[in-house]
Amino acid sequence: MGESHDPVDVFREEAHELLQQFEESVVGLGDEPDNREFLDAAFRALHTIKGSGSMFDLTDLTEFAHDMETAFAALRDSGQSAPRRVVDLALEAVDHLERLIDGGASDPDRQNHAALVVDELRHLTGVDEEPASAAPPRTGAGDSPEVTTIRGTYVPSASTFLVGTNPISLISELGSLGALELSGSVAAIPGWAAFDPQACYLRWEFAVTGQVAPQDVGDVFMFIDADSRVELEGDDTDSATGRDSGAAIDSDAAITDGDSADRGTSDPATEGVADAPGSGSGGAATNPRGTGAQSIKVRTDRLDRMVNLVGEMVSLQAQITLRAEQLGDRLMAAHAEQLERLVREARGLSMDMHMVPVDRLFAPFRRHVRALAAELGREVSLEVSGTDTELDRNVVEQLRDPLLHIVRNAIDHGIEPPDRREAAGKRRAGHLRLLADYSGAMVRIRVSDDGAGLNRERIRARAVERGIVAEGDHLTEDEILDLIFAPGFSTAETATAVSGRGVGMDVVRRNVEALSGAVTVRSTPGRGSTVELRIPLTLAIVEGLLAQVGDQLFLIKLEYIRECIDGRAAVRGGRREMIDFRGEVVPTLDLADFFGIAGDRDDHRPIIVIEAGDQRVGLVVDSLLGNHQSVVKSLGRLLAGLEGVSGAVFLSDGTPGLMLDIERVVRRAIRRAS
Amino acid sequence: MLTVETADTDGQPRVIMDGDLTFATVGDAHTALSQYRGSEIGLELRDLGAIDLAGLQLLYAAAQSTAPDGPVVTLVDTPAMARFRAMAEYCGLPPLGTVPRG
What we know:
The complex is a heterodimer of chains A (674) and B (102). With 674 residues, chain A is an alpha+beta fold. In chain A, 42% of the residues lie in helices and 20% in strands. Chain A has five domains: 7-125, Up-down Bundle (Four Helix Bundle (Hemerythrin (Met), subunit A)); 148-286, Alpha-Beta Plaits (2-Layer Sandwich); 300-354; 356-536, Histidine kinase-like ATPase, C-terminal domain (Heat Shock Protein 90, 2-Layer Sandwich), CATH 3.30.565; 541-673, CATH 2.40.50.180. Chain A has 21 helices and 21 strands. In chain A, the strands form five sheets. A five-stranded mixed beta sheet of chain A has the order 6-8-9-11-10. In chain A, a hairpin with a 2-residue loop joins strand 15 (578-581) and strand 16. In chain A, helix 2 packs across helix 6 (167-177), helix 4 (84-102) packs antiparallel against helix 5 (108-125) and helix 11 runs antiparallel to helix 12 (330-353). Mean pLDDT of chain A is 77; it is low at 130-145, 235-293 and 491-502. Chain B has a single domain (2-90), classed as STAS domain (Transcription Regulator spoIIAA). Helix content of chain B is 32%, strand content 33%. The longest helix of chain B is centred in the middle third of the chain and has 12 residues, at 53-64. The radius of gyration of chain B is 12 Å and the shape is globular. The interface between A and B is large, with 47 and 48 residues.
């Protein structure tokens, strides 16, 4: 077995993805109770979770998923709309399924609640007379007169395993069409001497009962190899000679991941478990004939390690380039240049592999928002957009809690109760929007609501009351809003079942800034508020401009830099120094003053004009050293509290430098200037 | 990867397999078991990694195998074996060990 390659971990990761599909489908059903695709997708996800769980002896998970699946099968077979209560119950069950997948300890209260959820689900869907059972549901179709049974035989070719077809995936897909009766045979396995362990000798007879057409069953076998046979009873097209699947494969050579994912048929029991070539581990991943992009699953720790290694390569390559320049060795310089190209490409690829769609972050909010709205007595419609925007996987993980807190605030303190909204001439249901988009090398995530907006007078009063600002302090409108992020501003909150945390907005800002990001808020009384997070695309490797102040080196990320200008051209005056930058008066911040770096300096020093959000500041430094790529290291405990710095970098000769926290530096400079 | 060890339990040879039992490793497993043609052996699966239908099929072949052409294999019931039993059940195949030899 490979290093710590635990198939259960692989199963869990994939089961979580399936659970997310289930959740999304159920939320979709809430919006469109008659949408069969949502219903089928929810059923398929449960079916696969159950089947996979049983292979890992996760009995509690298997039983619970089975009960849920039975309820959804009954709902599907009944042909009726999904009642609102069924949707709510199914979403309640998601948390329990999540814990079961993780193999968490069983809390009796939660178990009781889960049992009640299942009981009510079964009652609502008309299966309460059937006792819960862990046995796989090979029977139990509904009694609807529209239900039909399609019988068939599947005889995989001897080369089935070799070409990467996975019969288990096909079985799972058959099961998703309706109640499946399955009878497999091992009779064709020859004696030991004649047995070829890589040939397939298995065969199956099956009967699918449900609202299903022969074509649906035939489609399951669309991509099997030409030598395999499928015979369906009563289906002339596929009878006797079997399905000629070769044409289907050839005519649809570029089978992509999307095809498989859309069908929701991936079976983690085999996809994640069997990673050997030709083991049939996953439909799209092992499509043997497709010419389109194929995919494999990679453990995240390996991916992280690779990104780190590429980061180290970037640093080493910079050292080699520098050394070649110092030696004046043209051949070495040429090699270094070539190396730089390769490393740059490797860096781009490794960063791409680390990116995930922001939907991974947003998806659970469809459920959270429903739960929060119900808990807080609000009506909320959620709009999610920009879900294809990609972010570093690690960033996504670290944004979950901050985003949950912001969303909770928006519903709790922003969106008014329905009656009050009506009285104010608004629609009863508040509108909450989660939006992601790119802004240069940053990703912008915005949470907007059309609620009451923030009350600046109350914010200011509370800040004074808590000693954050003095009564007489002059603050701009934006500065007052910014006080909600000040430590000590938020009252101690009680962790709830929904938030599960109890963090204040100061913690939100701290977490976002730990990602070298920034958080700001805008608000219009009576119209609503928008909290905006700006997050770097990736944390792995940064490219910046290296500047020197005294003996200290600073790295400023390129995406923040507008221009470098000659200090002599600047207009200076007194303590509040300003420069004329293309007709705009921009405040400056002398990094020597900011960090207390002593030395004799004149007014001719270069100025780096940086921009964060819509604010610009000129950073005065002693000298500019050029571009530098680096892996950013954490500061360690000693320097963790150093204001204006977000990480450490190392030069080719090992000299340490500090990466500036531009967002904070800009805020500080603006505050000083105003 | 599949590792194969042998042990002697109460006078009967026992083949102990540890690791992946998949399409990629069934050839090795088959070779290892073939060394005991004509003998009665126990087959014990321990810390299994990846498994698939090819691995399951090998277990059926082993359980059905008879002397003198093949080993006479008894499948030792272990937690790892339970995973294959669950796979068999999911796939509607007969329970492992219930298929007559020969």
